[in-house]
Design goal:
The chain is an alpha+beta fold. The chain has 2 domains: 78 residues, Orthogonal Bundle (Arc Repressor Mutant, subunit A); 33 residues, no CATH class. 58% of the residues lie in helices and 20% in strands. The chain has a 3-stranded antiparallel beta sheet. A two-stranded antiparallel sheet has the order 4-5. β2 and β3 form a beta hairpin. It is elongated and about 50 Å long. The termini are far apart.
Length: 128
């Protein structure tokens, strides 16, 4: 993934509503959902949802597929994984064992020191 693509993806996710939409689509899995279902689940007007979906599509984070009369939107897991790989490719100076230990340490502390809140049906973990 090129640096410019990373910046576009991170910029798209750096907005509250778009982040909620993307996280909702990730939770749904590769099947995705029609726009109406997404709008209803997140309490968004159709025009607002359309605007944000277009930005996420432009960033390559959301894919659209026509099924009969409906447009189905789904998270692009390949793009999401590419973004995560770019962000972590030099983690811990390339020592995967060290990174695994740090990630496990972080995961344990997040599980015990966090509170889970729901925002428009999307769970968010906040550290205390």
């Amino acid at each position: 993934m090129e640096k410019t693509d990373v910046i576009i993806a991170l910029t798209a996710l750096a907005q509250k509503t778009r982040l909620d939409i993307f996280r909702y689509l990730v939770q749904l899995g590769p099947e995705g959902a029609p726009a109406g279902q997404i709008a209803e689940a997140l309490g968004l007007p159709p025009a607002t949802l359309s605007f944000h979906l277009k930005t996420l599509q432009h960033a390559g984070l959301v894919e659209r597929q026509r099924q009969s009369r409906s447009l189905i939107y789904a998270a692009s897991f390949a793009r999401m994984n590419s973004l995560l790989a770019y962000l972590t490719e030099n983690c811990c100076a390339g020592d995967p064992e060290h990174c695994a230990a740090l990630c496990e340490h972080d995961r344990m502390h997040t599980a015990t020191d966090s509170a889970v809140t729901t925002n428009h049906g999307v769970e968010t973990v906040k550290r205390r």
